[in-house]
Amino acid sequence: MQLLYNVIKNTNIKSLGEKEIITNEELPATKKEGKEKDAKEHIESYENLVKTMLQNARRESEIIISKAYEDARNIEEEAQSKVNEIYENAFNKGKIEGYNKALEEAKEKSNAIIAIAENMLKNAKIEYENYLENKKNEIYDLILTISENVLKKEVLNKEAINNMIFDALKSSQSSQNFIIRCNSIYVNEIKSKIDLWKNELTYLGDVFVVGDESIEPGNALIDKGNGKILVGIDSSLLKIKEIFEGKE
Question: What is the DSSP string of 187-217?
């Protein structure tokens, strides 16, 4: 599994129009290093928690299957003991008829007990697989929750969302117009950066900013005419989900 910190750090932009765009946020060196160190330590502590949960899940599931095998072995030993007892009783009586009858009875009881043991093993394997699957889902949900909480802390920072929008615009300078849709809490901040961005990106076309309350804080949708780019929390979580589902 990729280090969760690296996954979160490198999954800021997801293109919905043409191709996937991945960027790293650029912050002033000292501030960036401090934030990254805090975030990394925070996330690594959660990763250790997830690893511990996985180890405990495997250990508990192994106990389930081990106990089932032990119970099945005890039942089989009981069945064999019962067969031997019946044989011995029949021989002691010295009667052929009794021996044959006892032999059939022993086989029936033995087969019945062994069937119970086999059924116990089958059920134990099912229980083992279900337990692991449930634990896997619990851990998967925990990782997504952790990722979302960490991303919210970082992306709700207006400076962070500005950097992601800037990187998205930079990657699509050939487009003539951009419409940035975002929650109203970012509108004024983003508008105040447009002139600065145009100076830095020489070929940047017209940029319009539209407040849209349907877009959750921490996200922005950039329409560039020939496609759309989603930046922020949702695109990062989508990327993390794809990694866990094996699509990455």
Answer: HHHHHTTHHHHHHHSTT--EEEEEE-TTSPT
Residue closest to 197 by CA, chosen among 173, 228, 217:
173
In Å, how far are 77, 145, 182 from 80, measured between CA atoms? 5, 53, 74
Phi, psi of 208 (to 5 degrees): -120, 140
Give the tens place of pLDDT for each residue, 112-131: 777 777 777 777 777 777 77
Domain spans of the chain?
Answer: 4-27+157-244, 47-153
CA dihedral 75, 81, 82, 83 (to 10 degrees): 110
SS3 230: strand
Q: What is the rounded distance in angstroms from the CA atom of residue 42 to the CA atom of residue 232? A: 20
Q: Tell me how long the chain is.
A: 248
Rg, the chain, Cα only: 32
Of the listed ranges 120-129, 160-169, 234-243, the one predicted with least confidence: 234-243
Query: At residue 83, does pLDDT exceed 70?
Result: no
Would the pLDDT of 194 be above 80? yes
Q: What is the pLDDT of residue 157?
A: 66
Tokens standing for residue 196: 């600065």
Record: fold of 4-27+157-244: hypothetical protein PF0899 fold (3.30.2320)
The strand pair at 13-15 and 177-182 is best described as unpaired
Q: How far apart are CA 182 and CA 219, in angstroms?
A: 7
- pTM, entire model: 0.45
Q: How sure is the predictor about 1, in pLDDT bands with cuts at 50, 70 and 90?
A: very low
Contact of 240 with 18, CB cutoff 8 Å: no
